[in-house]
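Input record (Table S2, row 255):
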Amino acid sequence: MSRKNIIAANWKMNMTPSEAAAFLDPFLNTFSEATAVDIVIAPSFIAMPKASELITPNSAVALSAQNMSHEASGAFTGETSAAMLKEINTEYVILGHSERRSLYGEDDAVINKKVHAALSADLKPILCIGESLEEREGGQLESVLTTQLEGSLADVTIEQMGDVVIAYEPVWAIGTGVTATPEQAQDTQAFVRSVLAKIFREEVAAATRIQYGGSVKPGNAADLIGREDIDGFLVGGASLDPQSFAEIVSAGIGG
Ligand code: 13P
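Output record (1,3-dihydroxyacetonephosphate complex):
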């Protein structure tokens, strides 16, 4: 089964609107036409309208949010709805990032509501899962990932899974400079795929794209992308520099 690689930049709370424009101007010229990979940029909410202006519908790059509310509208101060994201041509939304889970108390039940809200609005979720070092060393890797997948994807249909991307991000590799080895990432992502086969069915598991995230850099991207169950990256720090993100995208095209 051939899956199109998807390389996404998660800018987190970095890049003002003008900084986003300064990144995107040259970057969009480098990747101006459809490429062999899907390229996704997730700016902060405040930089998204600027990014949306620059990313035209026929550009090779798609716009993503880093989070959204599961509520449609109303008295939810500080929140952003799916309809608001759709109006500025957002295609993807990162959900359940470990920083949302650990710093803002999001659990699988809330993330599941967000996944359903996104899918109903025709937004493609990039669903993040991953274990802490303590959990990995304590032998809980498989149970943690299984619980996250079952909880976050509860009641998602086989048809809807066509729009879902999974991002495996071991918490111990995020922003630490410690990358999972290609073997660790491959073994874990093969396991994730086997869980998807149990929840849905074999064909769904085979078709679902699974990204790796956690200290991806130009220097390690090619090794990681060469592995069978790694279908792209969710990149934090190294996505803030257009040159280094372009190199990671190029590794994705080659892999
Ligand atoms: P780093 O690439 O900075 O480790 O961050 C990974 C990440 O959390 C992407 O969502």
